[in-house]
Amino acid sequence: MSAAELSTDRDSQRLQLQRMERALVRARLAQPQDLSETDYQCLRYAMGLARIHRFVPRGSKRDVRINLGANATLADWLLAHLYTPLRSAGSDSERLATCVQAMPRVRELTAQAREALLASHPDDFDAAALDREAGHRAFVSVAGGGGGAGYVYLGAYARLMAADLTPDYLVGNSIGAVMGLFRAARRRIEVDEYLAFAKSLSRADVFTAGRRRADLCLPGLLQLHLKVLHSRFVTGDHRRPLRLDEMEIPLDLIVAGVRRRSLERMPDDVREPESGASRLLPFSVKLASRLWRLASFFSPALVKPLVFGRDQDTRSLHAVDVVGFSAAVPTILQYELRGRAGTSREIFAELMNRHDLSALVDGGVADNVPARAAWEGVESGRIGTRNAYYLAFDCFQPKWEPKHLWLWPISQAVQMQMRSNRVYADSMVRFSPTLSPINLVPAAASLDQAFQWGWNQMDARLPEVTAMLQPATWEAAGRPALVATETS
């Protein structure tokens, strides 16, 4: 097996172990009396230990790549003996009964793997650092696109904060990028202040008439200028625009790059939707026409996802500018850099040239709920640890009302994307009801309603989120009894 194949195989194993732990947590939430706290802690610790392949120990800046042989036996055994039972269609009690039967072997292999890892890395980390990596899952929040439907995220983030659950890393696009910007700027936010700010907005604060020509984006029916966000997200005495690397919570944003050669092969009415007599049509007719054409952009042959914030160059960009491109719906909303964005313009232009792109547009057309991008970010060392819990938000659900029939081809394209992203999320909150996706600047009453919807739906999922983020410790896993047995 080649190095690349081995890496892919280990990635698959880690994902399977991640899904096993999720299944274990859900089963015990349903039937807590069927598995003791000691056995539960041991199983979760074992699954975390089996996933370790590299990490940055707390207090260190060095990324340690571990000896995979030290915990490979544990990982292989867990997958061979518990993956299918935990993921089967049986009852929660049946799943947990299988776990109870497996505990003697799980304890033995976990102790052996832990000792082997410590023995093979005496200068890299101590027992406390290893136990933390195995038992503590960082909180990763993924927020998908969906226009005005995404205002439910305000309530969801507020509910998490009320439970003292703060993300360690955020990834988002489109409206998820906007909400991610507000959430990531400060670890502690004033929810009432942000909600009041959203209620104060008018359409003129966000949009102007679109331009027939565009620099880095596609021409749109409206221009997304985001002046109010540029005024709000600043730092220093000179009110310099806040950069992505200045977020208090690490933030990565997804933008779609339109492939140059593919765009050139698109029909003229897609590349230039407003030409000739169509310029004289009423605004509502123009919008409806462009919404139907939007489905054409949900194609990997036409667009590719770009992750801004993952590397040092894009991390130095102004955060609001990246949000603007991430929310620039093709042919409907265009975003342009302001006149004094010289360095940012160079970075964007170089990136487009490197990938042979014609334009930057809404990240949702390439990767609407970017759970995989978040997982890859963690695996690349974005936040040091590789042990994370992934909570994904999806607000773009199919709507069957006649007024939303235009959404059908788009929602189907998004569901196709979801197949490849779903496996990377531990929990997926698919919000419904939501506001309409085209309600981009809602009235105050609508915002209050969306906030409450988000709060209530997050509240229903809170027991699972809290349980997944509860640390599993080697001490609580019954270590003293195991040591006594080994000594005797």
TrEMBL record:
A motif (GXGXXG) lies at residues 145-150. A motif (GXSXG) lies at residues 172-176. A motif (DGA/G) lies at residues 362-364. PROSITE patterns: PNPLA. InterPro entries: Acyl_Trfase/lysoPLipase, PNPLA_dom. It holds the Pfam family Patatin. The active site is at 174 (nucleophile), 362 (proton acceptor). It comes from the Bacteria. The keyword Magnesium does not apply. Transmembrane segments: none annotated. Residues 141-375 form the PNPLA domain. Keywords: Hydrolase, Lipid degradation, Lipid metabolism. This is Patatin-like phospholipase family protein. It comes from Spectribacter hydrogenoxidans.
